[in-house]
Amino acid sequence: MEIIVSDEIGFCSGVRLALKKLDEVIDNEKELKIYSIGEIIHNKSVIENYINKGVIIVEDIEEIKNGIGVVRAHGLPLSVVNKAKKDGYRIIDATCPFVRKISSIIEEEIKKDFKVFLIGEENHPEVIACSYDYKDEITIIDYKSFNPDNINCHLSKCSVISQTTLEEEIFMDIAKFFISHCYKTHIFNTICPATKKRQKSAVEIAKKVDLMIVLGGKKSSNTKRLYEKCSRIKNTLHLERITEIDKEILKGVKKVGITAGTSTPDWIIEEAIEFLKKY
C-alpha cells in the first residue's frame, strides 16, 4: 500500500503556543495546583497526558482554588480574563492570537458604525471567546444553517468576519451575499493560514488516493472541516487514532492519504503511518 502524507501537518502555531505556556507552568510551578480552563486543545490523547501530569480541567475560572489557571487555545472572552486577574486569580492567557485578532476587528468595526456579522459555529468556544464582549452588537451566523431570507441586509455598512477554522469557499459564498446586498461591505477572511493550507493540501491528496484518513479530535472544528472537504471527494475516515480503524476497510486499498487537524500530535500521525505500512 502506498501512503501519501500531507505536507501540511502537525501542530499549528496557536496550538504550539498554548501547549508551550502550559508546559512552562508545569515546569516552573511544581508546588501549585495547575488548571486548564477548558481543554487546552481539542485532542483527547493530549488532554489525557496533561491530566496524568496533574493538570485539572475546569470549565469556569471560579473553580480555580489556590493555583494557576491557563486559558485554553480557543480562548475566553477578554473581559472575563481581565476581571479574573483583577479579582486576584493567577491566569495565563494561552488564547490563540488569531482568535484575539477577531475580537480586535469586531471592536474596530463597531467603532466605525458597521453592523458586524460573524460566520461560524455559534456554540464553539472560539466564537464565544471572540464575540462575547460584543454580543449585543453583532450577529453570529451559523454557516450550516445560513438562510439569506433571515438576514436583514438593508444596511449601508456591514462587516463580515470568519471563524478561524471554516472552509474558505463556504465563507466566501456567504460573504458574496452581503457584498451584493449592502452598500458598503468589509470582508475579513480571518480563517487561519494553517487551516487554509491544510484544507488545500488534503483536497489534492484525496483526489489521488483510494481512501483518505483524517486524524484528529472529535471535538476539533478544523479536523471536522478537513473530513467534510475530503469526504466530498473520496471515501474518508475521521479517526482520533489509527487503532480505531476497521481493518476490513483497508482491503483492496492501494493508495491511502493521511492528513490531520492542527491539534493532532506528531506521534499519532507516526503511529498511523507505521500501522498502514503493514498493509
Give keywords.
279 residues; alpha/beta; four-stranded parallel β-sheet; 9 helices; 21% strand; flat
Walkthrough of the structure:
By secondary structure, the chain is α/β, with parallel strands linked by helices. It is built from nine helices and twelve strands. It has helices spanning 13-28, 44-52, 78-86, 97-111, 125-131, 168-181, 193-206, 221-231, 266-276, and strands at 2-5, 33-37, 56-58, 67-71, 90-93, 115-120, 138-142, 157-162, 184-188, 211-215, 236-239, 255-260. The protein has a four-stranded parallel sheet, sandwiched between helices. Strand 8, helix 6 (168-181) and strand 9 (184-188) form a beta-alpha-beta unit. Helix 4 (97-111) runs parallel beside helix 5 and helix 7 (193-206) packs parallel to helix 8.
Q: Roughly what is the average pLDDT, rounded to an integer?
A: 95
**Mind telling me the C-alpha Rg?**
20 Å
Helix percent band: 25-40%
Residue ranges: pLDDT <50 for 5 or more in a row?
none
C-alpha termini separation: 6 Å
Number of helices: 9
* Percentage of residues in strands: 15-25%
Order of helices and strands: EHEHEEHEHEHEEHEHEHEEH
Number of DSSP strands?
Answer: 12
| Largest sheet properties | 4 strands, parallel
Strand order of the largest sheet: 1-12-10-11
Inertia-based shape: flat
Structural class: alpha/beta
How do the helices and strands line up, and which of them pair or pack?
Layout: E1 2-5, H1 13-28, E2 33-37, H2 44-52, E3 56-58, E4 67-71, H3 78-86, E5 90-93, H4 97-111, E6 115-120, H5 125-131, E7 138-142, E8 157-162, H6 168-181, E9 184-188, H7 193-206, E10 211-215, H8 221-231, E11 236-239, E12 255-260, H9 266-276
Parallel strand pairs: 1-12, 2-3, 2-4, 4-5, 6-7, 6-8, 8-9, 10-11, 10-12
Helix pairs in contact: 4-5, 7-8
